[in-house]
Automatic annotation (TrEMBL):
Its EC number is 5.1.1.1. Keywords: Isomerase. It comes from the Bacteria. It comes from Helicobacter zhangjianzhongii. This is Alanine racemase.
Length: 356
């Protein structure tokens, strides 16, 4: 059976390398790991324990279902989307993207036996999720009057970390204004200070490598793609990250084919020289993108993946019993005009994951 191999040393290497770029300030931010969408397709149940063994205390997941499945492992688990039931463990925090969501969270937890920690999401320029900056006062006064919910974090999402333009710095300034406002509000009321964070991989590396102020880095940085060994910044970032996932497939069968023979649906691939061709047990049904005549992709050992890929197998000129389909998805992302995130998150949760 095909399987995904997860290289724990590469994972620790990435986290250490990222941590090192942030260590120049007196109060470096803590690394929080983003584990949403099945740990970017790598496998939540495999990556979460590795993260814990590295010393990660805070993580971000997609929703409550992901959060509850790893609730024993971390101090805090923030569900980026959806609601948290009132009886959920108290280390599962809710990310609140609107005033309306804040209101309904307060209502839902009114009669709960425990405090629900929330992180308020503020729109700092991406104009996607989050309350508007001019709604902040209303949100804070709602919080002041809700005894069962506690403001534990304030987050923004700087959507310009990858891009070499001014908007990145505009968003940093916007978040800095939000932070000052919330700080003053908390100090005036003796309210426990929440944590502040707005940076994902590319933004954190960019500021970290340029020795930014600790305030701008925040109390934590939310590291996703970098931990898995990639970044998509259009700026050069001097850091060596290692992809941690590789995909292996097993041989199903082999055939001796002659020049002119055609392989697969529609006979798209034509044999140029007599030889042995084999099929391997992974295809687009396992979440790979369907390799067609427009893509030229090779296995890690160099054999071309012959178009067109089938649902559960692909062909190539090889006799290996086992083949490494990829050990880096960058070429796949380029071939399909997309980003590594998309190739990775599509990997089927049904594929076996093996941590080495
Ligand atoms: C996905 C996500 C991240 C992580 O982004 P990377 O580019 O993978 O580091 C950080 N914050 C939020 C809110 C996210 O949704």
């Amino acid at each position: 059976m095909a399987y995904i191999r997860l290289d724990s040393q590469a994972f620790f290497h990435n986290l250490t390398a990222i941590q090192n770029t942030l260590s120049h300030t007196p109060h470096p931010p803590k690394l929080a790991l983003v584990l949403k969408d099945n740990a970017y397709g790598h496998g939540l149940q495999q990556i979460a324990p590795l993260a814990k063994s590295f010393g990660i205390e805070s993580v971000f997941v997609k929703n409550y279902e992901e959060a509850i499945s790893i609730a024993q492992l971390f101090d805090t688990i923030t569900a980026l989307y959806g609601e948290i039931p009132p009886n959920a463990p108290s280390n599962i925090w809710a990310s609140i993207p609107s005033l309306q969501a804040l209101q309904s969270c307060a209502t839902a937890h009114k009669n709960a036996h425990q405090m629900r920690h929330i992180e308020l999401k503020v729109n700092i320029g991406m104009h996607r999720n989050g309350i508007a900056i001019n709604e902040l006062d209303r949100a804070l006064s709602l919080l002041e009057n809700s005894r069962h919910i506690r403001l534990a974090g304030v987050l923004g999402h700087n959507g310009y970390g990858d891009n070499d333009n001014e908007s990145f710095f505009t968003a940093i300034q916007a978040f800095s204004d939000v932070r000052e406002k919330v700080r003053k509000w908390c100090e005036a009321r003796n309210y426990p200070m929440p944590r502040f964070h707005s940076l994902s991989t590319s933004g954190a590396l960019r500021l970290g490598l340029h020795n930014a102020r600790s305030d701008d880095l925040g109390d934590v940085v939310r590291i996703g793609i970098g931990a898995y060994g990639y970044h998509t910044s259009e700026l050069p970032l001097h850091i060596a990250l290692k992809p941690i996932a590789s995909l292996y497939a097993q041989k199903i069968s082999s055939l001796h084919l002659k020049k002119g023979d055609r392989i697969g649906y529609g006979g798209v691939s034509v044999v140029e020289k007599d030889g042995v061709f084999s099929t391997y047990d992974v295809g687009y049904g396992d979440g790979l993108f369907r390799v067609g005549a427009e893509q030229s992709l090779c296995c890690a050992s160099g054999e071309q993946i012959l178009p067109v890929m089938s649902m559960d197998c692909f062909s190539c000129q090889s006799q290996r019993e086992e083949i490494c389909v990829f050990d880096d998805v960058s070429a796949w992302a380029r071939a399909f005009h997309t980003i590594p995130y998309m190739i990775l998150t599509h990997l089927s949760p049904a594929l076996k994951r093996v941590v080495v």
